[in-house]
Amino acid sequence: MSKTNYQPKPEHKFSFGLWTLGNRGRDPFGDAVRRTMPPTEIASVLGEIGAWGVNLHDNDLVPIDATPAERDRIVREFKKACQQGGIVVPMATVNLFFHPVFRDCAFTANDPEVRAYALQKTLRAMDLGAELGAKIFVLWGGREGVETDACRRADEAVKRLREAVNYLCEYNIAQGYKYRFALEAKPNEPRGDIYMATTGHYLGFIPTLDHPEMVGVNPEVAHEQMAGLNFMHGVAQAWEAGKLFHIDLNDQAPGRYDQDLRFGSNNPKSAFWLVKFLEDVAYDGPRHFDAHAYRTEDYDGVKDFARGCMRTYLILKEKAARWNADGDIQTILKEISAAVPGTPKTGSYSAKGSAALLSHVFDKDAIMQKRLPYEKLDQLTIDILLGVR
């Protein structure tokens, strides 16, 4: 297939955060290896490489102590750069984890003043995102956790988080922003334990809110895989619940620190199943790459990293279409799902249906004769991924 088919287009809805391309390669053991790239330059680079959108935390764009005049100038210049680069801002979020004031949580902090400041900062970030045209607002509680449970009861933390999200929803309504809030889970780091550890935790939390229809999830590959979970399964549950509002794509070696690797670079098979799912269900939201280039790279390498994220997604999208069209694969899928004539219907309950089910005699030995050729099915998948089929 011609490589031109792997070129990103606006309809692919590929986006990157200011914090991703702008990552300077600093880590806990070493200082930055790349210069600071201004937000206006990042917008220009994203336009150059064919991305569709740019996302941001409030302080990725506007310094935390900027004056109103400075803030307005920065926003004005950034909007101009986005317009020139053909870049939109689909999502905004708030940084409630970097400043030392959030050393012990933000929305769930013991100190009422910290909780109030966290809300104020988030309202202003919502104002900023709305001004830039964002319609999705992500909330990642990176500091909402503990090293010791002696500091607060966990149920009190959940109550405080609920109060905060309810407040934000009411502000959203009052301002007419029409945001959809996307909650992002992570098991640990930077806290020893983060309260909402997985996408499933948030799917259980959302129905307890005053406006659950306004709130969904933003699953991230690395965050779920840090806990050794199957990311696609979490995404599928969120989709089935109508709560997949946004998604963060990267890669990760399970059980390690949050690596934010280039999408598909470590686990291409699991990335394939994820892309196949998103394409099969026609997910139409942003495909956001929350990842970083290797610390060894200069900014030409950062462009290589960003292009690679998009290219890998498009390659896997093509592989998914090939998988769906493969005759041998579809024959196997049809055979393993075929019902024996007379099998009772179980799609929905009725008194007549349950009576038929209870009276039916199942031939377990005959059932066991049916082949389930999953080894062959998986090898056909590998053949497609490795380009020999």
Amino- and carboxy-terminal Cα gap: 13 Å
H/E element order = EHHEHHEHEEHEEHEHHEHEHHHHH
Percentage of helical residues?
40-55%
Could you list the spans in which at least 5 consecutive residues all have pLDDT below 50?
none
As for the CATH topology of the largest domain, it is: TIM Barrel
Shape: globular
Could you describe the largest sheet, including whether it forms a barrel?
8 strands, parallel
The beta-strand count equals 10
Number of helices: 15
| CATH architecture descriptor name of the largest domain | Alpha-Beta Barrel
Count of discrete structural domains: 2
How confident is the prediction overall: mean pLDDT?
97
CATH superfamily of the largest domain: Divalent-metal-dependent TIM barrel enzymes
Strand content: 5-15%
Radius of gyration: 23 Å
Question: Which structural category fits the helices and strands?
Answer: alpha/beta
CATH class wording of the largest domain: Alpha Beta
What can be said about this structure in brief?
It contains 15 helices and ten strands.
Report on this model:
With 389 residues, the protein is α/β, with parallel strands linked by helices. The protein folds into 2 domains: 3-325, Divalent-metal-dependent TIM barrel enzymes (TIM Barrel, Alpha-Beta Barrel), CATH 3.20.20.150; 327-385, no CATH class. The protein is 46% helix and 9% strand. The chain contains 15 helices and 10 strands. The protein has an 8-stranded parallel sheet. It has a two-stranded antiparallel sheet with strand order 5-7. The mean pLDDT is 97.
